[in-house]
Design brief:
Length: about 300
């Protein structure tokens, strides 16, 4: 089986969501588990909403919520055609927004956002995107099933930068995800989000969906982890500065860390360390050009 992770730019809007769905559809024989980020820009908007709520800025909070709703309604309308499915999804989105509003309202009233309360708000981005992408996949005939990451990605209680607990995650992943994969279904989880042993929502830090993919890929001993982004892979230099920059087909983990100067835009090497240590290859691919080979990051490198 493989783990496929789609970053925010690869699920930015309806068109990109459907394109991501087609990529998953084309990989069914490899038995994918899918991880998605929030729609592009959403985690920033949610962070701003927490700030506005904490400062008691009611108007800017309303503006941010309206912008968030607009983005998600637009995505769901364009990505899901079947009327019944679209209706059910739309009710689900209503419920998630009602919950989000309530959480932000209590931050506004208290004028205080504890790290725990902030995480519960930030998690809404991946909760929303995961529901929309599942419905879009089912529209394409892919038997996707939403799994709450809180049931699988168990972490410590360092809200805002929670650390996944590898043994607990392995146990949960085997219990909750493997049976679905074996039954031919496609489990889909929002990245970035987990839960403490007490059941409180945690987040893994910005860019944390890569960590979710690496941790789940390791837990399931995946054949490969695919990180779908909007560039061709890891480049030899910043193509904006060096026109001759090229995609590196095969990169060692150490080289990937060195390239973080430019590669940081693509992924933080630290986030994939759990996979690399277990010798699970990580491939960075471009969802705008899915036929490309991307860059393969391996433990021992180019190897000639
Ligand atoms: N949505 C989160 C962020 O923007 C996590 C991720 O996309 O990896 O940081
Ligand atoms: Mg992101």
């Amino acid at each position: 089986m493989i783990v496929m992770k789609f970053g925010g730019s690869s699920v930015a809007d309806a068109e990109r969501i459907v394109a991501a769905g087609r990529i998953v559809q084309g990989r069914m024989s490899r038995r994918p588990v899918v991880i998605v980020s929030a729609l592009a820009g959403v985690t920033d908007l949610l962070t701003d909403a927490v700030g506005a709520a904490r400062r008691g800025e009611r108007d800017s909070l309303e503006r941010l919520l309206a912008e968030l709703e607009r983005k998600h309604r637009w995505a769901l309308t364009g990505a899901v055609e079947e009327a019944g499915r679209r209706h059910r999804l739309s009710l689900e989105i209503d419920r998630l927004f009602e919950d989000l509003r309530q959480r932000l309202r209590s931050i506004r009233v208290l004028r205080e956002a504890t790290p725990r309360a902030a995480d519960a708000v930030l998690a809404a981005g991946e909760d929303l995107s995961a529901r929309i992408v599942v419905a879009a996949l089912r529209d394409l005939g892919v038997p996707a099933r939403w799994i709450d990451p809180r049931e699988v990605l168990l972490t410590d209680r360092r809200f805002g930068e929670a650390e996944p607990q590898a043994d607990a995650v392995r146990e949960r992943a085997h219990e909750k995800l493997l049976p679905l994969v074996e039954a031919g279904e496609v489990p889909l989880l929002g990245g970035f989000v987990g839960a403490s042993a007490e059941g409180d929502t945690t987040t893994l830090g910005r860019g944390g969906s890569d960590t979710s993919a690496a941790v789940l890929g390791s837990a399931l001993e995946a054949e490969e982890i695919e990180i779908w982004t909007d560039v061709d892979g890891l480049m030899s230099a910043d193509p904006r500065l060096v026109p001759a920059a090229r995609t590196l087909p095969r990169v060692s983990f150490a080289e990937a860390a060195e390239l973080a100067f430019y590669g940081a835009r693509v992924l933080h090497p630290d986030s994939i360390a759990p996979a690399v240590q277990r010798r699970i290859p990580v491939r960075v691919l471009n969802s705008l050009r899915p036929e490309g080979e991307g860059s393969l990051i391996v433990e021992d490198g180019a190897g000639g």
